[in-house]
Amino acid sequence: MSNEALDLNDPATDPSDVAAAAAAVIAERSGADHHDVALVLGSGWGQTGDLIGETVTTIDNADVPGFAKAAVAGHSGTMRSVRIGDTDRRALVYGTRTHYYEGRGVRAVVHAVRTAAAAGCRTIVLTNGCGSINPAWAPGTPVLIRDHLNLTAASPIEGATFVDLTDLYSSRLRELARTVDPDLDEGVYAQFRGPQYETPAEVQMAKIIGADLVGMSTTLEAIAARQAGLELLGISLVTNPAAGTSDQALSHDEVLDAGKAAAERCGRLLAAVVQKIAVSEA
């Protein structure tokens, strides 16, 4: 089934139907009737897929209903089915995400999450590159997401469906991550709409209302994950100081450079965490 056959932005289309169609393509291409853990790899996290285990199948996003090629430099326009370590469990690894600022609609932003649930995943790991308000977290620091502030004025939930977001970012998974790296800190992530970086005043606003980290992704996907019944782990990689917290100008090249510098550490950390998740759910 082609992407054009199921239009996520058509009000007559049920997004769960598109997710089911995407999951069917993934199952056919990968030879796996289900996957166990999904990962969305943001800036700086790209090596993780190589370190989790053997890549069984690589699929172009454009071949899967509802997906599109990568729109951001530093992201991969493919998804992979990866055998987790020496187990028989599979990870569905997305090399990119759809950002809200791309203008494709909220359904497209959360389609990978809904597809993961349709593919059988019980757990999802959302990663991102972000700016840090906390001066103790230098570029290259991984930080567990404890909670979030959704400043996009949007939601993936449609209609009168009320979803509890208490413990949205699983405390169980955060503790499991600390068995891999006891020094992992945690904080609150605020998502702005983007694509412009936040102003210093916006960063100060976010700080006043409780944010430690700022970025342009993750919160809408997290809400969709809870709605779909997935257990969620969120991890941010600090790629730059947030605007106004240093005298540095912000640039996407800086984000990419910081991600490359931290790639091996973050990749090994996340691969070990995913292997622990797989064992804990066996």
From TrEMBL:
Phosphate binds at residues 43, 75, 97-99, 129, 217. Residues 37-274 form the Nucleoside phosphorylase domain. A purine D-ribonucleoside binds at residues 198, 240. Keywords: Glycosyltransferase, Transferase. It is an enzyme of class 2 (transferase). The keyword Cell cycle does not apply. It catalyses: a purine 2'-deoxy-D-ribonucleoside + phosphate = a purine nucleobase + 2-deoxy-alpha-D-ribose 1-phosphate. One of its GO terms (cellular component) is cytoplasm. SUPFAM superfamilies: Purine and uridine phosphorylases. GO terms for biological process: nucleoside metabolic process. Pathway: Purine metabolism; purine nucleoside salvage. CDD domains: PNP-EcPNPII_like. The purine nucleoside phosphorylases catalyze the phosphorolytic breakdown of the N-glycosidic bond in the beta-(deoxy)ribonucleoside molecules, with the formation of the corresponding free purine bases and pentose-1-phosphate. Cleaves guanosine, inosine, 2'-deoxyguanosine and 2'-deoxyinosine. Belongs to the PNP/MTAP phosphorylase family. Homotrimer. This is Purine nucleoside phosphorylase.
